[in-house]
């Protein structure tokens, strides 16, 4: 982990285009934010030269955005292939990942072929993992089309698939060449998915930036209505914070774990309910409330902060109560899932907690206390 300049203060603005740079030495890349980027030929200029490109997308996103991306890429690549995957978190698995390798091999794609991940976080994570492993690594570009994937999953190079026993357990760190956040693509996003994305936006406040949290409180209704300018600001600030964290700790030796605020409880809900029953962002929403309560129990924040965070999560249209995973021993079921979390060390669960608003800390906690919080926050 390196010492970086402090995060620049949040300044509300009205620009609807922006570029944020993620500083990772030779793996640095730009994250471009704006409306209409997907279909612009100029967007893709400057990418590595290659004979072929392969777009990975899914059955929901393809009818909406594939044509424009394919046309824009055809100006640059002699061959533009497509692999269309089934939609959903339940398909973020080996079997579906293999369809990408099938497509790459059937089309004779070589080591220079660029992969383009067109879709939400599921497509981005799977395409990134395929790019990391096909011929031991080919370049790839993130074209995130959900709010969640624009503000979080497309940035920072985490790629993975799920295992029935644990979320995102098989994967690699592998950075894209470019990330394009086309704000216009958010216009077709179902409201439930928009709310799920807001969970990852909200998390940046308590862990790093309470001025942004204040702004979110004032603008949450505008964001839920899909207001383009408000969205541009939320995406830009989220990406700035993520880029700042990842630039200091690309492979999660320490600091980067703060980005998992709410995720330890949330992943337990996702895995415990069966992938796809709760959306990832919904698990994170309820998980942040649970982590805030645990922070309060450990004397790190007061009840007023927990209430404030819970209220914003509720206003974002997200659940503030955890799911019941087991009627007989619900807390036990959570603990079992949380022990296979990637942050766990020798079976000890490590939680991302809030150590005063705007600052996160990694801590373990006694099982009895965690059980109390789960009992209070579920159902
Ligand atoms: P998702 O990829 O399942 O997309 C949500 C739904 O929206 C899907 O049905 C998708 O087909 C549809 N969709 C996508 N774009 C659309 C559009 N523009 N209009 C209409 N529908 C559209 O889910 P997600 O919330 O984008 O991502 C969640 C995934 O991201 C999880 O698997 C999670 O583990 C992962 N994730 C990864 C990281 C990381 O750092 N790599 C970070 C956070 C989350
Ligand atoms: N979403 C958590 C991370 O990128 O580290």
Could you characterize what this model shows?
- This protein has 379 residues and is of the alpha/beta class.
- The chain folds into two domains: 18-188, Rossmann fold, CATH 3.40.50.1970; 191-377, Dehydroquinate synthase-like, alpha domain (Up-down Bundle).
- The chain is built from twelve helices and eleven strands.
- The strands form three sheets. It has a seven-stranded mixed beta sheet, sandwiched between helices. The chain has a two-stranded antiparallel ribbon with strand order 7-8. Strands 10-11 form a two-stranded antiparallel sheet.
- Strand 3, helix 1 and strand 4 form a beta-alpha-beta unit.
- Helix 5 crosses helix 7 and helix 9 packs antiparallel against helix 10 (303-315).
- The longest helix has 21 residues, at 228-248.
- The protein is globular and about 60 Å long.
- It starts with 17 loop residues before the first strand and ends with a helix.
List keywords for this structure.
globular, Dehydroquinate synthase-like, alpha domain, binds nicotinamide-adenine-dinucleotide, 43% helix, 2 domains, alpha/beta, two-stranded antiparallel ribbon, Rossmann fold, 11 strands
**Poorly predicted ranges:** none
Strand content: 15-25%
Biggest sheet layout: 7 strands, mixed
The outline comes out as globular
Integer count of domains? 2
The CATH homologous superfamily of the largest domain? Dehydroquinate synthase-like - alpha domain
Strand order of the largest sheet: 1-2-9-6-5-3-4
What is the CATH topology classification name of the largest domain?
Dehydroquinate synthase-like, alpha domain
Task: Compute the CA-based radius of gyration.
Answer: 20 Å
Per CATH, the architecture of the largest domain is Up-down Bundle
């Amino acid at each position: 982990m390196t010492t970086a300049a402090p995060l620049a203060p949040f300044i509300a603005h009205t620009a609807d285009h922006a570029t944020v740079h993620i500083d990772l030495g030779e793996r640095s890349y730009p994250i471009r934010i704006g409306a209409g980027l997907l279909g612009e030929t100029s967007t893709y200029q400057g990418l590595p030269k290659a004979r072929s490109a392969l777009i990975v997308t899914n059955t929901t996103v393809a009818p909406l955005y594939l044509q424009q991306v394919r046309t824009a890429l055809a100006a640059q690549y002699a061959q533009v292939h497509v692999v269309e995957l089934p939609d959903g978190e339940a398909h973020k698995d080996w079997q579906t990942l293999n369809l990408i390798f099938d497509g790459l091999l059937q089309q004779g794609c070589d080591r220079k072929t660029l992969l383009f991940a067109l879709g939400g976080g599921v497509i981005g994570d799977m395409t990134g993992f395929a790019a990391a492993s096909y011929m031991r690594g080919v370049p790839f570009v993130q074209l995130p089309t959900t709010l969640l994937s624009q503000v979080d999953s497309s940035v920072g190079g985490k790629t993975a698939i799920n295992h029935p026993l644990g979320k995102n357990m098989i994967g690699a760190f592998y950075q894209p060449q470019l990330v394009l956040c086309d704000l216009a693509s958010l216009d077709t996003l179902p409201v439930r998915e928009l709310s799920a994305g807001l969970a990852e936006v909200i998390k940046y406040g308590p862990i790093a930036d309470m001025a942004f949290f204040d702004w979110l409180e004032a603008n949450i209704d505008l964001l839920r209505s899909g207001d383009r300018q408000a969205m541009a600001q939320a995406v830009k600030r989220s990406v700035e914070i993520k880029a700042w964290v990842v630039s200091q700790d690309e492979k999660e030796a320490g600091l980067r774990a703060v980005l998992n605020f709410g995720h330890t409880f949330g992943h337990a809900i996702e895995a415990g309910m069966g992938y796809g029953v709760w959306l990832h962002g919904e698990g994170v929403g309820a998980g942040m409330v649970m982590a805030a309560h645990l922070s309060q129990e450990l004397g790190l924040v007061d009840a007023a902060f927990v209430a404030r965070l819970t209220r914003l999560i509720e206003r974002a249209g997200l659940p503030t109560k955890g799911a019941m995973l087991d009627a007989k021993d619900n807390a036990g079921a959570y603990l079992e899932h949380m022990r296979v979390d990637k942050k766990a060390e020798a079976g000890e669960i490590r939680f991302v907690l809030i150590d005063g608003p705007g600052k996160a800390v990694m801590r373990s906690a006694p099982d009895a206390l965690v059980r109390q919080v789960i009992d209070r926050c579920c159902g």
